[in-house]
Amino acid sequence: MTVLAECTERPAVVDPQDAPRAARPRWVRPALAALLLGTALLYLWGLGAAGWANDYYAAAVQAGTQSWKALLFGSLDAGNAITVDKPPASLWVMALSGRMFGFSTLSMLVPEALMGVASVALVYAAVRRVSGYGAGLLAGAALALTPVAALMFRFNNPDALLVLLMVVAGYCMIRALDGKSTRWIALAGVAIGFAFLAKLLQALLVTPALALVVLVAIPGSFWQRLRDLGVGLIAIVVSAGWYLALVSLWPSGSRPYIGGSTNNNLLQLALGYNGLGRVFGGDGNPGGSSDSGGDGPMGGSMFGGSTGITRMFGESMGTEISWLLPAALIGLLAGLWFTRRAPRTDRTRASLLLWGGWLIVTVVVFSFMKGIMHPYYTIALAPAIAAVIGISVRELWRGKQFVTSRVVLAAMLMATGVWNFILLDRTPEWLPWLRWVVLVGAILVSAVLVAGAHRLGRWTAILAAAGLLFGLGAAAAYTVETIAGNHGGGIPTSGPTRAGGGFGFGGPGGPGGPGGQRASDNAELKSMISQADNRWAAATIGSMSASPLELSTGASIMSIGGFSGGDNSPTLEQFQAYVAAGQVHYFIAGDGHHGPGGDSGPGTQITKWVQQHFTATDIGGTEVYDLTAPN
């Protein structure tokens, strides 16, 4: 209750960094410890229940523990045939952990969970420097209890490192408001550059907000701010460009093919399939038509649903991220309005510009992008929503326009209660009473806020506690359900299991995965592969078959065509050369799936050549060719 008291006081707040350490309220350290320890417990509890999570990245992590070259390039296999379709920064962290502690589910996923704890700590630190301890704790708790955050900070996709580094950049920008701006802006640029090496162009979605804060709010003359902006840009280019240069200058014949690219070039991957193709369609993404985000095979709920301004609230994204989004938008608009006449360097407005700019730009891009858009991408919004909530609630509570501020707070809570009722109603069989409790509680607390919060006296802290309970309760319950459930595969979703949701590539029930699952469960086949000592124990079409088999045997399995089997690697000529050199022992046929490209695709060409020159053997129901014994 003493923590809430800090939010109920109306006098102006002295910036925490300006106060002597002894002057800090005694409850700060215990409250912060409870937040971080609670987050750690939440994110580490039952970690690994989903097995290898995303087999695709897990196989690459395993390869990185077996080969330093595979670690450097992010190879899908220790033989270094092809990389995953992302840069390898997140794989570096997980593979190095595996090298230190032995490759396992926990050595792979614990670093991801700790990234979540660090993100919560940094959001707290950034918000409390501007709006005080209570606001920082609220922002940290809001991030920790976001369902999609709890999902992805327990997963092995690149999003955990991406979000952590973007939060680092945001924290550095807040520090730049206090002075020594050049150094902190440079550090923010370094963080964004390495975030680019985690997930390419998505890392740049926060740069407009960072640039806006530099130009508008950083102390100094216009030319000094312009210089600082240039320093930040250079830092981004250098911290991302060194790896692009390394890959480009490394002889292509002695490194793996860049998965997802069309010409074995990482920059083309960044601008094509995993870059502008995600925004405008094409380059391996759904088409660029206005209805490409519909309900077709590449536009259903697991691929973002229909495009449009309501996308973040729709069936696909809503329960992942939008629990506090209406309140954050209301608070952002109100905060910017109330600070419109503040000095240029006003820290509160600068903080709102930072986190609010991050929020608006990301929402707009995610809402209208026509390429592949998975629901879990929305974790990139979680820190911005949490920070805006913390700042706006604190500043509105102590606002000089007392009545108007409390009306806005009531509107934020009311919008949260109504919207959370709608979200919970999407899974009516799960805790059916919760949506009514949240709705009625939010209405009652909102009414008290408008009618008589200024007359409650010592009961004000109880009112604030009730507001937090009804404001965060639904998201917290959904988060706990996410932790308790089993969310695996390539396209995980949070919360209770719903019909038609939660499938994943390479995971149970993944499309195109049955052949890979049967092979990975085939004891006789696994024994044969484990005994092979070739560069690649086996080759098969696509990662959906290769990854589970690689994980179950620990052997190097060539994924012909990369993720979906459609990459032009290896070519038929390259594969023939590998076989002639004795570098591939077995070829495992799929269930008629040769990958995209029809008769001209590498998977089809290689399959036909193998069938013509080698004899098939049935191994436990799987068609296998011994490439060391031609006809």
TrEMBL record:
Residues 531-613 form the Putative mannosyltransferase YkcA/B-like C-terminal domain. Its main location: membrane. GO terms for biological process: lipopolysaccharide biosynthetic process; response to iron(III) ion. One of its GO terms (cellular component) is plasma membrane. Residues 85-239 form the Glycosyltransferase RgtA/B/C/D-like domain. The chain crosses the membrane at residues 31-53, 100-127, 134-154, 160-177, 184-201, 207-223, 230-250, 321-338, 350-369, 375-393, 405-424, 430-452, 459-478. GO terms for molecular function: pentosyltransferase activity. Signal peptide: none annotated. Keywords: Cell membrane, Glycosyltransferase, Membrane, Transferase, Transmembrane, Transmembrane helix. It comes from the Bacteria. It is a multi-pass membrane protein. It is found in: Cell membrane. This is Glycosyl transferase. The lineage of its organism: Bacteria, Bacillati, Actinomycetota, Actinomycetes, Mycobacteriales.
